[in-house]
Specification:
19 strands; 41% strand; mainly beta; 1 helix; 251 residues
Amino acid sequence: MVLTSVTIPDDLHEGEQMLVAFGGGEFLVEVPSGCRGGDVIEVDFPVADAPTDCHAADADASLASPPSSQLVRLVVPDGMAGGDCLTVEAPWGALLDVVLPDGCRAGEEVELELREEGRPQEAPARCGGVYQPGERVSVLRSNGAYTPGCIKEYEEMSGTYTVELEGGLLKYLVDEDSIAPLDFQPEQAGEHFVGRRVQVPTVGALSKDDVTGSIRSFDARTGLYVVDMDNGKARRNVRAEEIRVRPDRRK
């Protein structure tokens, strides 16, 4: 028997069963009493009986030496995500440091290669941008609202990203300033919020940049806004009724 640490998936409770891959086989393991999703339990897995033929001695010697590498599956613990370093117990008893694959999240099952030498595995190659393919983020939409998305790729030449939005829609050429952590909450500014894309119709405007911009701030005392226009200028003392947001972009 080999004692191995197993993390219980988040959606399981005591008495329920989970399928665990180990040593080339799959085993049904029942969640012990008093345990729940996210807990780490110790499980004894059976190992093949030692051979009894004339090569038994050689076989025993090979069993005593751990394999050069072995693939195992585990559930990403709570509070951890892709790129984090995790210590796991190998089937042969060694404690190994592994790097979680980019893009994985707590509660997801991942497959890792455990190496005999016990050195931390090299993290997958990272792109040159701040955010990595597979990473879940918040994306600034054209109406200034932030919605969830997933980084698909990074374009080195332009320094922009392709982001997959909910529903599978792809948003191209997204710069880093338009991306934030998944749990980002924009600062409220009156009936709008800081960073929201708006229009401020202006008499004598010569281009679109003269009427489009982003909310910079709101003075609750006066009820007036400051809007950073796309032409590089700041419009101050803007009244709420002067600000326009397209009806289909109010979400």
